[in-house]
Amino acid sequence: MGFGDQIMASGLARGAAALGKRIAFGDGKRILWEKSSFDIFRGNPNVAPPGCEQDPDIEWIDFYKGHRKYNRRVGNRWVWNLNFRATPGEIFFDAAEATAGRRYGESFVVIEPQSAQWKSVAPNKDWGVANFQAVADRLRESGLRAVQFRGDVSAVALAGVEQLRTTSFRDALAILSRASLYIGSEGGLHHGAAAVGVPAVVLFGGFVPPSVTGYATHTNLTGGAAACGSLNRCNHCRKAMEAISVDEVTSAALARL
Ligand SMILES: [Zn+2]
Questions:
Q1: How many whole angstroms from 113 Cα to the centroid of ligand 1?
Q2: Domain of 62, in residue numbers
Q3: How many angstroms is it from 115 CA to the middle of ligand 1?
Q4: What is the distance in A from the centroid of ligand 1 to the CA of 232?
Q5: Alpha carbon distance 189, 55 (integer Å)
Q6: How far is the CA of 226 from the centre of ligand 1 (A)?
Q7: Separation CA 82–CA 72 (nearest Å)
Q8: Is residue 10 within 8 Å of residue 41, measured between CB atoms?
Q9: What's 116's domain CATH number?
Q10: Tens digits of per-residue pLDDT, 113-139?
């Protein structure tokens, strides 16, 4: 699932270097990284890159593509491992990245109205652009600065919301680290917000339980639904999202600020 999984992995590796260890994510024989692993783990002293399989400081964790510890595939749905708890991840920015992350200032609210539209589960995680627009309008009426990231595969641009050009996902996270709040769906940026220590209001809906991939530092809204994990367009998930009101999200946002 891309960046979110790598950020969760960085949470699993937290503190390893302080114990003289590095975590090898793989099957016990090979360290199995994806392209997004290289992006997220750059500069991270707790994680061992491919090629370190024989090093003496290695400790294996079986968390890799096709084998995540928080779910397993049964037919057309995920079955969630309710014993799994996401730990906030870590991103190690170099000096240039940290400097670049300050170029839009700070204390703004990042709104992400759509996540990963190319995934089959996208409809189940979609609260609706019109709802996000309504929240953005209310925040702006309250005098807050609402922004949205604009990269290669960006969501639809909300009206009246400042569009911040980003050069990469890491660049977006460096900017996000200066934010007061993130509002958006369950996905890469909510994991990113937890990793850079930014509070969030996360629209979970009925797909994945907040107890598994959510964070205690965030307000996680489910619309009262139990998570189904369906990889198909799901009526239950749509109803869960419909049960979350603009008022509820706006109030949660203002409470977090
Ligand atoms: Zn569902």
A1: 19
A2: 3-69
A3: 17
A4: 8
A5: 33
A6: 8
A7: 11
A8: yes
A9: 3.40.50.2000
A10: 976 677 778 889 999 999 999 999 999
